[in-house]
Amino acid sequence: MRLASLPGVAAISSxxxxxxxxxxxxxxxxxxxxxxxxxLQSIHYAYVQAIYFQTLGIPLLLGHSVQPGGGPPAxxxxxxxxxxxxxxxxxxxxxxxxxxxxxxxxxxxxxxxxADGPGCxxxxxxxxxxxxxxNGSDSRQIYLQLPEDRLQDYPLLIRTQSDPAQVVRAxxxxxxxxxxxxxxxxxxxxxxxxxxxSFIASSLTAGIASTVGLLGLLLASMGIYGTVSYIVAxxxxxxxxxxxxxAQKRDILGLILRESARPxxxxxxxxxxxxxxxxRLLHGLLFGLDTVDGIxxxxxxxxxxxxxxxxxxPTVAASHARRSHGGAPIRVGSGFPRTARHMNSPLRRPPPxxxxxxxxxxxxxGLPGTSQIPASDQARADAxxxxxxxxxxxxxxxxxxxxxxxxxxxxxxxxxxxxDDPAIVCGAAFLGGRPVMVVGEQKGRDTKQKLYRNFGMPKxxxxxxxxxxxxxxxxxxxxxxxxxxxxxxYPGIDAEERGQAEAIARxxxxxxxxxxPVIVICIGEGGSGGALALGVGNRxxxxxxxIYSVISPESCAAIIWRDSTKAELAAAALKLTAEELLxxxxxxxxxxxxxxxxxxxxxAAARFLSDSLLQALESLSDLxxxxxxxxxxxxxxxxxxxxx
Length: 644
Hints:
The chain is an alpha/beta fold. Helix content is 41%, strand content 16%. The protein contains 22 helices and 18 strands. It has helices at 52-56, 81-87, 164-178, 189-195, 197-234, 236-244, 249-281, 294-306, 312-324, 340-344, 375-390, 398-405, 447-452, 460-476, 493-497, 500-511, 528-532, 553-560, 567-573, 578-583, 602-620, 625-637; strands at 9-14, 24-29, 41-48, 60-63, 76-80, 97-100, 119-126, 141-145, 156-160, 358-360, 407-412, 424-431, 434-441, 480-486, 518-527, 539-543, 547-549, 589-591. The strands form three sheets. Strands 10, 11, 12, 13, 14, 15, 16, 17 and 18 form a nine-stranded mixed sheet that branches. It has a six-stranded mixed beta barrel with strand order 2-3-8-5-7-6. Strand 15 (518-527), helix 17 (528-532) and strand 16 form a beta-alpha-beta unit. The protein is rod-shaped, with a radius of gyration of 47 Å. Residues 321-357 and 361-375 have low confidence and may be disordered.
């Protein structure tokens, strides 16, 4: 009573603490007329006082902790809820009777135990505790009334309302006043739990499991990083191309992160399902956690999913590598055959000084409204405005230049295989009194003409017609002049059925073999293979506001950024203007245009073009047939030495 009155003491009881009781006995229900050996249950038991449950905070679910009716203490017991379910599943156990075996707190072999002790009545049901088995595998427990004459054999359990150390300091003087020679030791339940063999074994097992789990997370992180690094390594060239055409590092990083999120999420969901199942097996090792603990699952999921940012390192490394090699020369292969003549020819060195990589008058007229724009934005705006000028509906087309530059033009029709293609016009003419063969891609001016000319997109028969005319020129020693102005070769099914790709490839091969001067001039849009099929020449000229590219800006933006509205950005990245192509050595001469564009003064634009063509013809007049073929080969052989 004196201890219970101390400050900070909430309740006090005599009993063995939880986890410090390893004694078991046999028990059988007396509700059956006759019990057999199969009805015996092995169950833990402990002697406690009535206030034991209040002291340890174990709630009573049914009944009371005191013996009803003031009967003998030994005749009444309290069961844990799992023990009650074991004996009377689905029934109310209060008032039911049990017969126990030996309860003398000694270890007995199971074969020696039998429920031959006195009968007892169930007075209450307490909530399950882990008891002697900390893993919670067996929570069945019977609580027996502790006799008064045995109180001195059991330790005191004290529930405090304040710091246990303060209560201990108050208890020490009280014990000394009762018996100076009495030595008392104090331990909290936490300390006793940590020192118990069961807890040590469970902690060791949990530590091993946690180590294995952390190792698994580490391996998962390494796996994600390795997989993404491998994927990025395979796409390094693609990253380089995207960076070359203007993609920013954040765009590349966002693309890789989005694509990597899908497999990571799929594996994460599968892992969570497996973890839920595995946690059931580890239930006994989860102290203070449920088998499906939301915080644990969310934390691990965020950790694993966060490691998809491992994509950032290889992606940034790839973009830096490509950026750092942006100006370095990279040798690429050639599609032309290497013959002994080619290998030993003095023309194998870079293009001779006679190649006129210059600008023909007048000087650039510039574009209105760009003087106050920053350099990068101005380049973008300039490229896009030149795209618009190249597509201007009033811009001169091939027949407009043929009418003004050449004389006595006699058009030829048909490919002698299928039919005629109005998208390509070709025939014999005179340039400055010299006979030439002219081939041009013709767009229409109005709707009727556009439909007739197929919007300037040639079909196979058009390319074969052009090849027929160029081979006639080679046979009769006439120079060939081609005018490029097409958005691209026609991609229709009928064109593919008649061998569009073969017709373009054949033109490339045969034009490289022509034994006469070949002069190419891009007058508007030079779109991809549709223009290149007529673009293999000894001299490649380009009007100031023309464009020449492997793809249209809209298609490029749709592929790179999946957004065709970024065509302006793509136009600047493609380097498709005459100025940029001259710097790259892909063309030889930029031909000036009147102020505002060729459509403002077609006659002036035709005069500039005529002067450029005559100058180009004059520069090639001293080369023989073999030299012309060799010079053409060397010229295209050296194209593409520099990739960004």
